[in-house]
């Protein structure tokens, strides 16, 4: 597993734990970095999601047809949050990479149906999410087909 893949998983773990414990994710980020230094990309992902959480959750709610955020499995919801941050707000990650990593992560951690669900939501985010938030397209991979098999 690559360093960035591990960083994504750790970011999902932190957001999931903060949600479960009902504490600000910044508190867990601080606690975790005291225990063991965090990968800088984990910090980027967690802080990025935290800064844009309302916009990200709004996008996910609009693209997860038939599913509210509260109804989604917690792992799926938090993987979607991290991947949406990468797709919409992180210009250095190609769309296909963000989607593939998210699909792989839910394949390991969640239900059998999760990879297809996450792939579909993120493909929609990649196609339309930036324009909804008026963000510039990612230069790397913006022209690639974001749908990947799960």
Characterization of this structure:
With 150 residues, this protein is mainly alpha-helical. It has one domain (3-133): NusB-like (N-utilizing Substance Protein B Homolog, Chain A, Orthogonal Bundle), CATH 1.10.940.10. It is built from seven helices and no strands. The longest helix is centred in the C-terminal third of the chain and has 20 residues, at 114-133. The radius of gyration is 14 Å and the shape is globular. The two termini are 17 Å apart.
Q: Which range best describes the helical content: under 10%, 10-25%, 25-40%, 40-55%, 55-70% or over 70%?
A: 55-70%
Tally of individual domains = 1
The level-1 CATH class: Mainly Alpha
Q: Structural class, please? A: mainly alpha
Largest sheet: none
Shape: globular
Uncertain stretches: 139-150
Compute the CA-based radius of gyration: 14 Å
Oligomer: single chain
Average predicted local confidence, pLDDT: 88
Helix/strand order: HHHHHHH
Number of strands: 0
Any idea of the CATH topology?
N-utilizing Substance Protein B Homolog, Chain A
The termini sit apart by 17 Å
Tell me the name of the CATH homologous superfamily: NusB-like
Beta-strand residue fraction: under 5%
